[in-house]
Design goal:
single chain; mainly alpha; about 0% strand
Length: about 55
């Protein structure tokens, strides 16, 4: 009976590792210009425009 618990633990570890690998792969390919200090997505050096300037 202990072998079944060990197999479940191994399967859970494998799924956890696969999820961590997926998160690491997706996190490494974030688009540029996102997640800055103010988290607005504006690149540094570019002016920020209000919603009325963008006709929203």
């Amino acid at each position: 009976m202990d072998g079944i618990y060990f197999l479940i633990l191994l399967a859970f570890g494998a799924l956890t590792g696969a999820l961590l690998a997926l998160c690491a792969a997706l996190g490494a390919n974030l688009p540029t210009g996102r997640g800055g200090a103010d988290d607005t997505g504006a690149l540094s050096g570019q002016p920020k425009h209000s919603a009325s300037d963008r006709r929203l």
